[in-house]
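Example (one chain per record):
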Amino acid sequence: MNFCSDNVTAISPEILTALANVNRGAAMPYGEDECTKRLNTKFAELFETEVIVFPVATGTAANALALSTIAPPFGAVYCHQAAHINVDECGAPEFYTGGAKLVTLPGSNGKLSAQDLAKVIALSGIGVVHHVQPAAISITQATEAGTVYSKSEVEQIAEVALTYNLSLHMDGARFANAIARLGCSPADITWRCGVDVLCFGATKNGAMAAEAVIFFDRNKAATFSYRRKRSGHLFSKMRFLSAQLEAYITNDLWLKNAANANIMADKLATELTNLPGVELCYPVAANEVFIQLPEVVIAGLIADGFQFYRWQGEHSTVVRLVTAFDTTDESVDALIKAAYVHSASVARSSL
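Predicted structure:
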């Protein structure tokens, strides 16, 4: 009944089992345990290249600390105006970078365009002491609109970053959902396209509290360990974060979980858009459905006990429905059935 967010879920059983298994005996602290030591190798296999992996507990910590390694205090980080780092992280990127400026750009369907970025950066005052200096570009995969960047779109943005010697950061809180949709390898949409650092999300897709900051460029990771410690995000019992991440990428659990969430979102979008007065706000590519519903249908669903967010204020008729790894056909069918009932009542009352 709760479609508010993929943060409302329980823990994926496989991850819960991994936590129980690692909860035996003593292990060295601060990432010196065997589980944490395995992560670089495990993620190198997943991404088909050498990587440096840093577990953290939250997406905000992952993004803010990653950006702090690639943007100086006088730097500019270019991102979409709806990006999580701009809207939902309470100034954490600015805080941890020591004052770097987020420069926001509009873009259709929640995505930045390479053309817009190039124009803005070209006019940014490079080398002028009075202006913040371009340092990084941040893109979100999947986006805050539930859409997904294609390989060519990421490549074009990376080309802009290369032209101006900027780092490219990817906020991958829903990276699994994007990969499940694209059907490509994780490597193909990250480092092979020019991504320097990825915040690889797990919490929204079945973990309890675990994100991985993955550096594809070893040189850019040089200060991260110190920044993580200084910020209070170096866990003494790191094995409990690492065990989650290891279980998450074992036997493609991350993709299986994401595939279910995507399928459930597709089903919601397909069935609800058959109703009169219903319209999708964005193409559905991951596990978020932004949809305009008649007020009577919204009120009826809420009265029935379904939970979701109105997305543009308390009186908005645009709602966000989010599915997850454990969303069932039965729960989706129940919402669809209820929406049809309330929609039919509107039609009957107009006769």
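Caption: Residues 117 and 332 are 39 Å apart (CA to CA).
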